[in-house]
Amino acid sequence: MADFNRLHKGHIGTAPKSAFNKKSQEDKSTDWSVYVTTQLKAWEALHNLWLSKFPGPAYIVSYETLVKDTRNTLQGILNFLNVTVTEDDMKCALLHKEGIYRRKNKHQNFDPFTQDMYQRLHVVKERVLRNIQDYRRKVNDTNIAKDIF
């Protein structure tokens, strides 16, 4: 949704509600529905490409884990990269983790996702998570964050 907003209103803008209902020129689908379908396929393909083609060591972290447990997740990444930071550096990163580019939630109580979209998102997410588990077993890699599952 963040990228859909970006496409319609820039880096910190929010797409108008009408953008989610605008019909596509090619068929009767909405631009939003076409966008969700296209991006969902691209998201899955990107993850599968990395899991199947990247030859180096990997440290896989989910966004949800990074948000929920920022300090430990960052520390895991730093350990994987063999980078040491001071406690002051870590405190600074945690203090500024929200960043300066935040979209104001203009449309409160507005959810453009349909039940079908949520179902498709869930199915694809589960497939990617299974592929990550398979990858982890294949390479027996302890560097992949365990708590993303």
TrEMBL record:
Domain Sulfotransferase: 41-111
Stored InterPro entries: P-loop_NTPase (IPR027417), Sialate-O-sulfotransferase (IPR051589), Sulfotransferase_dom (IPR000863)
Pfam family, one: Sulfotransfer_1
Gene3D superfamilies: P-loop containing nucleotide triphosphate hydrolases
Family (UniProt): Belongs to the WSCD family.
PANTHER family: WSCD FAMILY MEMBER CG9164
UniProt-recorded name of the protein: Sulfotransferase domain-containing protein
Natural source organism: Iphiclides podalirius (scarce swallowtail)
Taxonomic lineage from the root: Eukaryota, Metazoa, Ecdysozoa, Arthropoda, Hexapoda
